[in-house]
């Protein structure tokens, strides 16, 4: 999932690292309540309240992520807190390392 995201300064004290593969919040499509677990795999350095580019992968194989389409707007959730928002720019097919 290639997206543009904005993290809210009033909701986080420290900026998340989008490049170490350890930041795994949930996305909630605006107008929906379904939590979609994702893992940010790379992105620009987070500057609060500023749009940045980032890439993320779905976490769960048993969850339907098909509602995430180009142009879909979403919130970034940590627990019950909305810490940011974003929009899907592009969906790319990711193959696990070593697969053909």
Short précis:
With 100 residues, the chain is mainly beta.
Describe this protein's structure.
With 100 residues, the chain is an all-beta fold. The chain contains no helices and 6 strands. It has a 6-stranded antiparallel barrel. The chain is globular.
Largest sheet: 6 strands, antiparallel, barrel
Shape: globular
Q: Order of strands across the widest beta sheet?
A: 1-4-3-2-5-6
Q: Mind telling me the C-alpha Rg?
A: 13 Å
Topology as H/E string? EEEEEE
Topology, number of strands: 6
Distance between the termini: 20 Å
- Binned, the helix content reads under 10%
User: In what range is the share of β-strand residues?
Assistant: 35-45%
Indicate the low-confidence ranges by residue numbers: none
> What class, by secondary structure content?
mainly beta
Tell me, rounded to a whole number, the average pLDDT. Answer: 93
Based on the model shown, name its key terms.
single chain; 6-stranded antiparallel beta barrel; 6 strands
Topology:
Layout: E1 2-7, E2 26-29, E3 36-43, E4 52-58, E5 73-78, E6 81-90
